[in-house]
Amino acid sequence: MIQQKSSAASGEVMDAISRFLAAPPEGTPAEIIEAFNSFGGGRFLPPKLFLETVEQAPVAISITDASARILYVNHAFEALTGYQRDEVIGHNESMLSSRSTPLSVYQELWKTIQARQVWQGTLVNHKKCKEEYLAELVISPVLTPGGEVSYYLGMHRDITAVHQLGQRLKFQKSLTEAALDAAPMVVAMITAERKVLLDNHAYKALLGDCRGVEPAGLFLDALEQQIDFDLAGACRTGKGFTNVEIRLDLAGSAAPRWFSCSAVRVDELDEAAQNYFKQQEQTRYCLLLIANEVTGSRKRINEVRLNMIRAGMAEQQMVETMREAISGAIFKMQVPFNIIRAALAMPGTGSDQCGVCQVLHQALESGNEAMESLQAALPSRTAEQASMVNINEILHEVMRLSTERLLASGVVVDWRPATVLSSVTGRPNALRGLFKYLIDNAIQAVNESGQDYREIRLQTRQLDQELVVEVMDNGPGIPEAMRLKVFEPFFCGWSRAGEHAGMGLTMAQEVILGHGGSIEIDADFCGGCRVFVRLPINGMGGV
Ligand code: FAD
Q1: Most-buried pick from 74, 127, 157, 285 (CB within 10 A)?
Q2: What gap in Å lies between CA 177 and CA 215, rounded to an integer?
């Protein structure tokens, strides 16, 4: 009985398939039409061949009447669901429902197929053994020549494994993202073209601190300057690095920030279909950069260092003060001696034997002895080795050393460092002394101006092959006639000279020249004084 029912159904199915192929409904997926047409090259094939094709197709196929009553199922349907065809024919497709699919999905399904459209979606089904699976289903209406729905063609496959894999991937992605976001270090995945593919919360926070400037670019610039790091080369060769400390001087931030950076090469995500079969050597790589902020520990180390520098500078200053005082005394003593020499050289002074001449000669002699003793008493400067120095760091230290004076004078410091600055070869103590002197001068200038608002601006920038430091103050400025004179020894233009001997700028110039650089006072600057210090990046100009 069941057998008869089945062969009758097969006949109906053949008719249905022929009609379906003659006029497939709008939206029918190409693969369905292809599946039926594959052997015919567009021509109709004998129904037996159709049946064999459908029967042996690797996807679960069912054909129902207009109310979803099953008329035919293929072998793959039996294999997937575990039901023999006799057990399903005559029943509604709902027998596969596990009752976990929301009603709204079925409503949408029926709305679509009754409108003679193809429906595609996912349902939760169960097998005969009650095991649940996810069915990816396509339902296509089969129409009568009059355009009425006479049958439905259903094709479905089990996508449970794919779904599970997707879920696992999703879970792993959210786990990785959560771990990355919870991590206190800055993490960024960067392509060889400096594009950031992936980042974390700490990176985004730093992006805010950098006022929108991509931190990855700043890290790469600093690494390039510090260890000659080449991003494209690292992506090519796979050569990473670990624990390289870099310094960032962010605009608007008073203190620098330090990061310990490490990087490894990773495969770049490539979703392009055309690259599916690509060769290994064509794989594109990117860099996973991990930057751990070490500003806190660096601050503590710098504090200790600053105290040592403070003590060193106090000693250095004492030596310089003594040198200035003794040099000043020698300079001043030259005046009476020159007068004596001139008097002795005057015609008609009389013979060397005259009493006055003898006294003058004696005075000259003892004066020369005194000068020699003074020269010998000049404390010598300690020779200092050149090393790689970061001028931002030197200036920052000098500002910290001058904090008390700046506060006492009510001076506002506008600190505008270049975010990333190349290191230069230099003598750190000499450079510190130089900038300390320029800052002290600026403080004295704003104090002398008597203005209510007192400002000193310090700016660093990097030009092609030199670093430029600008020290500006809103004091009275230096009149044009004095702009070269201020560098002369023992020139003092302060209205309150105090302990100044007028050697500071002379010595500052000496230090700069010793570094192969230059110092000048900006002639065009109005409303104060602006001093430019230029230092060569590559070496000390042969010094
Ligand atoms: P029902 O009350 O039967 O249906 C739920 C809602 O669907 C109804 O409230 C109504 O809005 C709509 N609906 C149901 N039948 C009709 C209808 N004849 N006309 C208009 N609206 C209707 N379901 C599965 O769960 N798994 C399958 O693998 C599956 N394969 C299918 C293959 C084909 C070719 C077709 C045509 C349908 C298939 N269905 C399948 C849908 C199935 O026929 C049922 O509609 C569904 O299982 C819900 O049945 P139910 O008894 O839970 O609720």
Answers
A1: 74
A2: 19
